[in-house]
Amino acid sequence: MTLENCLDWKKWIEEEALQFKFSGALSLGEFYNIYEIRQVSSEQYALVQLADLFAGLGAYSHTTFNKYINWEIEHGEQVNLKLTNNSTTPQDMPSKNDLDRFKIIEYVYTESKRNRFQLSFRKSKGFKTNNPENPLNFWFYTPQHPNDRAPVKGY
Questions:
Q1: Which among 27, 54, 101, 113 would be 20 to 30 A from 132, CA to CA?
Q2: Would you state the pLDDT for residue 76?
């Protein structure tokens, strides 16, 4: 299943949803009867694969921010040079996988600006949504109390 197929399938769901006579926007809970939430393999479920892609992209955009900015400068983009790392150690050199992922980061950021999703990238040193009301959201867990801990995956 490709990303294009996932997005086409989502578009079909939205078109089908328009046939219903609801007032306001439909949520997944209104469109489907959700009985349980369980862990599944993303290989079998397109929407889970899409969610995994964006979750990974959000975290990756922060962990490789300096590498990305240096790559962007090499490709002639106009960016704030104060953000760069300027080190040229081997671990700071982008791998082939990094180069492929940088193109995805660039595409998501460009399209989010074009669609006015108010997605921050440079100031937050990785993807962060400024307005959670927008359809594309990247956010990180922040503790609300000193003893508050982020949820962890159970294995």
A1: 101
A2: 64
